[in-house]
């Protein structure tokens, strides 16, 4: 299975709305738990434990919504463990709150909330990790049911444990498989034929200059070929064209991709030129997504680093202050290809700060 997650693989489509998915799942789980408690209140033997169980479930919901925020991306393995741990704590406390009175198994709200939270986590974490977490959750809940079930209940403890496993195991496997198949579809998604790749501005500028020099050189070469001799004036003109062509090519080599994009660049060690294609694309997308005050001069770039690690700061003057909701999808996009990324919104400009580790 893939080591990536849906939120990382498609941060604009799935990473940005992750808090909405998380909030929806948390609300659904809380509604299911509250409804089950009201319908089966006669089976609760300890309302204090039940209240703590519901509080733990609320805590899990709040935690997953907060940690799924794009500005906190990526959602890490320890966040996964914390959310799932709170959910399982709530389930264990709910089972303990019904000890001695839990004669019906199908009204235990743990059977409903665990799959819901696994579905939310399947967006935020890799499928294999979600599968392992789901299997661990199933094993723990089954063990708790086995230990806390009354031997005098209509269904023996082993039977209740088996029913619990059959209700939790299929959705635990299903959400991991769903995430895995979706990732595979995203990986093989064909490019949109309507999208035409934008021309590299650096190549466009150089090609135009070279074309102008060719237009001047071809008549000169034709005149030399027709006369069979080279005059002093023609030799001087040929040297001028050669010098201009050399200057154009050297200037093209010296200008980096950020300079060609219109930035004023302070990068004495050329860290920005050693970024990968994916990192450059993420930065270009970020710049293009902001309401820049001047597209010809979008701002300045300062790069400072040591050895292979550097910090890049893009200062982008904006025509209007962008909303956080507009900037939020860009944070997981940057963090999917860069070790650290922050976007700070000021009054008339936006600062994009990223850390990079370049190849030697």
What layout of secondary structure does this protein have?
Elements: H1 6-9, H2 11-15, H3 18-39, H4 47-67, H5 77-97, H6 110-124, H7 127-148, H8 157-187, H9 201-227, H10 232-254, H11 257-260, E1 264-266, H12 277-288, E2 300-306, E3 309-317, H13 324-327, H14 330-335, E4 340-345, E5 349-357
Parallel strand pairs: 1-2
Antiparallel strand pairs: 2-3, 3-5, 4-5
Helix pairs in contact: 3-4, 3-6, 4-5, 5-6, 5-7, 6-7, 6-8, 7-8, 9-10
In words, what does this structure look like?
- There is one protein chain.
- The protein has 360 residues and is of the alpha+beta class.
- Helices cover 60% and strands 9% of the residues.
- The protein has 14 helices and five strands.
- A five-stranded mixed β-sheet has the order 1-2-3-5-4.
- Helix 4 (47-67) runs antiparallel to helix 5 (77-97), helix 7 runs antiparallel to helix 8 and helix 9 (201-227) packs antiparallel against helix 10 (232-254).
- The longest helix has 31 residues, at 157-187.
Radius of gyration: 31 Å
**Overall pLDDT score:** 81
User: What is the number of E strands?
Assistant: 5
Number of helices: 14
Q: Biggest sheet: strands, sense, closure? A: 5 strands, mixed
Strand/helix succession: HHHHHHHHHHHEHEEHHEE
Q: Indicate the percent of residues in helices.
A: 55-70%
Distance between the termini: 31 Å
Strand residues, percent: 5-15%
Q: So what's the overall shape?
A: elongated
Low-confidence stretches: 190-205, 249-255
Strand order of the largest sheet: 1-2-3-5-4
Structural class: alpha+beta
Task: Describe what is shown at a glance.
The protein is α+β, with helices and mostly antiparallel strands and 360 residues long. The protein is built from 14 helices and 5 strands.
């Amino acid at each position: 299975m893939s080591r990536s997650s849906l939120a990382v693989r498609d941060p604009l489509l799935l990473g940005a709305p992750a808090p909405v998915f998380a909030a929806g799942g948390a609300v659904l789980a809380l509604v299911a738990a509250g409804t089950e408690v009201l319908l089966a209140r006669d089976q609760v033997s300890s309302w204090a434990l039940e209240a703590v169980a519901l509080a733990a479930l609320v805590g899990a919901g709040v935690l997953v919504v907060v940690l799924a925020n794009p500005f906190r991306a990526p959602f890490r393995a320890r966040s996964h463990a914390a959310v799932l741990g709170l959910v399982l704590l709530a389930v264990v406390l709910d089972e303990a709150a019904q000890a001695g009175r839990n004669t019906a198994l199908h009204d235990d709200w743990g059977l409903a909330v665990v799959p819901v939270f696994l579905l939310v986590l399947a967006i935020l974490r890799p499928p294999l990790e979600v599968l392992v977490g789901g299997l661990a959750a199933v094993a723990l809940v089954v063990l708790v049911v086995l230990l806390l079930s009354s031997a005098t209940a209509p269904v023996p403890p082993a039977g209740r444990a088996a029913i619990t496993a059959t209700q939790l195991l299929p959705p635990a496997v299903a959400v991991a498989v769903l995430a895995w198949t979706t990732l595979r579809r995203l990986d093989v998604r064909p490019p949109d034929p309507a999208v035409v790749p934008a021309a590299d501005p650096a190549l466009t500028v150089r090609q135009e200059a070279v074309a102008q020099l060719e237009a001047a050189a071809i008549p000169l070469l034709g005149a030399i070929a027709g006369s069979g001799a080279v005059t002093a004036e023609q030799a001087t003109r040929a040297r001028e064209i050669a010098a201009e062509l050399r200057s154009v090519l050297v200037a093209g080599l010296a200008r980096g991709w950020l300079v060609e994009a219109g930035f004023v660049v302070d990068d004495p060690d050329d860290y920005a030129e050693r970024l990968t294609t994916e990192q450059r694309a993420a930065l270009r997308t970020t710049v293009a997504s902001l309401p820049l005050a001047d597209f010809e001069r979008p701002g300045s770039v300062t790069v400072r680093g040591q050895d292979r690690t550097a910090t890049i700061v893009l200062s982008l003057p904006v025509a209007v202050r962008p909303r956080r909701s507009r900037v939020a999808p860009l944070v997981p996009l940057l963090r999917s290809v860069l070790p650290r990324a922050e976007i700070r919104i000021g009054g008339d400009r936006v600062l994009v700060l990223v850390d990079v580790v370049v190849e030697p």
